[in-house]
Model the fold of this input.
Amino acid sequence: MVDQNNYDAVLMDIQMPGMDGHEATARIRSKETHRALPLIAMSAHAVAGFRESSLGMGMNDYVTKPIDPERLFSVLAQQIRSVPARPASAPVAVATQAPLLTAMMFDAPVIAGIDMADALARLGGNQQLLNVLLERFLQDFAPCAERLMAAIEHQAFDSAALLVHKVRGAAGNLSMQELHQTASELEQLLLSPQRAQYREALAAFNAALDLVIDGLQAAEDAELDHSASVSP
Done:
């Protein structure tokens, strides 16, 4: 994609299946045309020394997941500011928009397992976007418990850990704190030699996931009932 398009910066996820962020970065940096392209590492495993190791791998900076919008914008502003100016393109007409509202200006609905006010704040108060992301979470992860058990029963622990990792990332960005925490613990156990200890973590993860899924399903059912009651 960087060979085919002109980007201001690249957000590079470190933990990806097939090719991780370090290898992808090395391939991008191997081309002279991409030597100055800002590459920003993204990881949920940012331990001490992570920034230094990322810089050593050819990254310009890093952000942690779940994403802190202020940190992300700060890093982008710092990195993109040093990119050489490009020829100005034709101006594009943009409709005037009102400033984004903060989460405090919304009566955030209550959904079990989700800090809705924090999720709205993370998205700049965009309730419509939050609704879309929550609906996608429900669609993507409602069958997660069954898939996870099937992977574990077949001793496919790497696949099970990858599935939990996906839940962990989405839960963190959507302010599902308990689910994010239990997913983090379960993922580490599934990838460790002490896998015999995973059962308690698995039960905690399933309970936190069920709480969120049930809450989202109840909210969706309530919305459908409301829509049916106001329809002519």
Observations:
- The chain has a mean pLDDT of 83.
